[in-house]
Fold:
Amino acid sequence: MKAVICRSPGDLVLEDRAAPGAPPPGWARVAVSHVGICGTDYHIFEGKHPFLAYPRIMGHEVSGTVVERGEGVELAVGEPVIINPYLACGKCIACRHGKPNCCVSIEVLGVHRDGAMCDEILVPAQNLYPANGLSLADAATVEFLAIGAHAVRRSLAAPGQRTLVIGAGPIGLGTALFARIAGLDVSLLDMSSERLGFAESELGFAALDGSKAPAADLVRQATNGEGFDLVFDATGNTQSVQSAFAHVAHGGTLVLVSVVKDDITFSDPEFHKREMTLVGSRNALRADFDHVAASIRGGAVPLAKLVTHRTTLADTPRDLARWAHEKTGLIKAVIEVG
Ligand SMILES: [Zn+2]
Ligand SMILES: [Zn+2]
Structure:
């Protein structure tokens, strides 16, 4: 089969690889249909991902069709599926508490083990969710949106709360969309006027342009000096995370959606006087995948506006390398494999 291999940072090639064999019990062989390209993939390509072992087949935002079932698998051959790429051990404390999204020994397809930028892949059947009428193109967008949907669910938000999402990239936009679906009053803060312009004109979000004024001033103006009930950081930027604490209202919540490599510091008196809640959010659960899929089916997600770029498996080495640095007009790119 054909596979796109990242052999080392900056070195992405299309190669022939042995197709996966028969699936073991509880697993299925899936013909890959569509693969979304994520910030993580650009980071792996650029060598910015910590602890990644090369060579690696990337790709964790995946839809496909079941082509062969291991023993005990009940999904039908030919079933269109959404792949949940977080392979969990099923035994650790997080798994025992129903949180496989933060499994102690989690393996994410395309990161810790080979992913789906190829023709076929083996996946545990419990990580395959029937697309139930969703097109395979749309099904490949469920994972990245589920990250935001999970963060919103983690926030325990109440409808009407004033909400700030920092970072207008795909994860931030997904968070903002699912915050709005949850009935929150959403503003977006970013340093890119281009991205904010898109969020404002195409998606209808209030925009706070951090390139034009200090974020603290913009937050004060937008909230009568009170701060936001809910703040989500989806920037992956240490400075932004640290500044975000100050944007939270008294009694409010800060949710860290993206991860940063560094330690973060904050003022404990500022934190305590607000009685702030600080929430980490990692990956997503089946309930989030189901919520996103249902929202897409119901027409609540403007996918036609979010998927801005398309390519094929053969052209991925060239296009992914280009999109890693040419971000103008790029929200989400999808590889059409099958
Ligand atoms: Zn991703
Ligand atoms: Zn586990």
